[in-house]
Every structure is written in structure tokens, then in C-alpha cells.
Amino acid sequence: MTHAPVRFAILGFGHHAVRRLLPAFLRSQETTLMGMWRRDQEAAAKECATHNIARCFATREELCASPEVDVVFITSPDAMHKDDVLLALRHGKAVLCEKPLSMNTAEAQEMAEAAKAAGLLFGVGQNFRFNHSLAWMRDQIEAGRIGQPQMAHAEYAYPAGNAPRKWITDPTLACGGPIADVGVHCIDALRYVLGEDVVSVSTLARRDESSGKVEAVASLQLEMTGGVYAHVSVSARAPYRTLVEITGSDGVLVAENGLTVDRPVQLELRRAGELVETVTLENGDGYTRMLDSFAQAFRGTGTFAASGEDGVRNMRALDAAYKSWHTGLRQTI
């Protein structure tokens, strides 16, 4: 039995939508992008024409109220997420919201509770949960191939000076610098592959002239359930690189480019210093897999791996990371 595609509209259309989401919708068999809204209406009209998007909504309210929209995908700046999510929920729409979910845990909890009270599907765009590379690592750990995980490391570096999102250094719009922007991906990836949660956080970070009031480089030490000690390192001042490593009692998993969708990911399983297995995987369909999974959950034929309630857990870790940086003390969650 075939289904009509689930109809999405993007609220807060910007560079991320053009670069990542539009190609993902084109590849999706379960969804269709039927509309969008952005504050700059002249730019919105041009983008709708360029990308053949059927509806260019005049206001956020018009988008959320439209009977032609099943799901509102929120990609606005972080500080706008709470109001945008609550608006969509009030209009009875399912919501997929970009990460970081909000500016703080209290906002995230309010959003999750509102979705639960309304009985509406609410998810977070933690797209890496739909990458083949993380799924492979999770499978190896669950199969016991490295024994009991003991240490973990996730790294995400990128040159923010080249980034088109100029608001990312504005603390009135952004939850933070690279800790919130990409560190949340690292934290979420470790939680996902390990099946564990963050217990406490200790943070070192520094600002620079370009970052202003937000951090430019940071190192987070995480205590996790299951006796795992983890390290997350992020930088907005280095060439692009992502890495995920898990050290267990019997072996090691290494994923160079583990959190990327633009190039092949080399995964290794090592024991006693020897290479046991190597796999090369592509994550190019990760965003499409995320959209399709959300559509299946919307129809009631599947579950979505990055729920809004789970997103609250990531926000607790981010809040603890920033509090640790500002106080100089380890923060327990």
C-alpha cells in the first residue's frame, strides 16, 4: 500500500536548508517539501522560485495554520526555537526542530511537555543518528566486539570564519559557540552509540576576538553512566574534521570522519594494536533517512530515534558544560 508523502514546511529557511535539506527532500520517498517561511520575504520569494517550492508563506502563523502542512521543520536561530515550536504545536502540527533544541534546559522541557500534552510528534534534527557510520559502531558495541566500553572521544572542528551563519556568535540568538553548535552532535553521538547518558561535565574553553562573547575552542570531560569517561573537543578555528573513538576492555573502534556526510567514513576495529576489521561507509543519505524516519513515525509505522524528550537530555549536558566553564567547577547533572 502506497502513502501520500508527508507534507513538510520549513520555518526559518536559510543556508542549512539550501545546502542540506533541499537535497534530502528531493531524495526522500516518504516526504515532500511544500512550503517555507523566512523573515526576509524578498529572499524567500526568490528561493521559492529557484527551488520550485510551492508555497512561500507570508508569516510564521500562516505556515503553522495551513491545512496543507503536516510537519513544521524549524531551522530558525536557537533563541527562536521555543516560540516557533510552541506556535506550531498550538496549531496541531508535528514538529521537527533543529539542534540545539533551545537556549537552555528549561525551554526544552517546556517544549517537550507541550508536545506531550498535545499528543503531537516532536523530534530533534540530530541527523547523525541516521548515519550508517554511527549505526555500525553501535552494532559493534552491542555485539560485545570491544568488550565493556571504558573511554570515548568525539571531536568536531570547523573554520567558522567561512560559515555563512553570522548569528552563531550572537549570544542573543545562539545558545553558544561550538559547544552548542557542534558539541551537541558529539555528545549526542556518544550517548547514541554507547547507549549511556551524561552524569557530570567539566569544561575548559576560550574566547577570541572573532567569537566575541561565545567560545571559540573548548574541551569537555564527561562522566557517563556505565563507567565510561568521555572527552569532547570542539573548535571553530580549525580545518574541518570529525572523529569518534570508543575504547573498550577488549578492543577499540575508530571512525575518522565519523560525523560527516560529505565524504566516505573509514571505520576500524582494533584489538591489541592490530587491525581486525575495516569498513568504509557513506553517510550521504543521512538527512533523507532522518526525514523518512520522522514521516514513518508521523504515520504511526515507526519510531523516531531523536525525540524531543531525548533532546532535553542533550540540553542538560550543554547547560552543565557552560556552567562548568563559567564557574570553573565540575557540574553534576
TrEMBL record:
Keywords: Oxidoreductase. One of its GO terms (molecular function) is nucleotide binding. Residues 137-253 form the GFO/IDH/MocA-like oxidoreductase domain. The keyword Oxidoreductase applies. Residues 6-125 form the Gfo/Idh/MocA-like oxidoreductase N-terminal domain. It comes from the Bacteria. Pfam families: GFO_IDH_MocA, GFO_IDH_MocA_C3. InterPro entries: Gfo/Idh/MocA-like_OxRdtase_N, Gfo/Idh/MocA_oxidoreduct, GFO_IDH_MocA-like_dom, NAD(P)-bd_dom_sf. SUPFAM superfamilies: Glyceraldehyde-3-phosphate dehydrogenase-like, C-terminal domain, NAD(P)-binding Rossmann-fold domains. Belongs to the Gfo/Idh/MocA family. This is Gfo/Idh/MocA family oxidoreductase. The lineage of its organism: Bacteria, Pseudomonadati, Acidobacteriota, Terriglobia, Terriglobales.
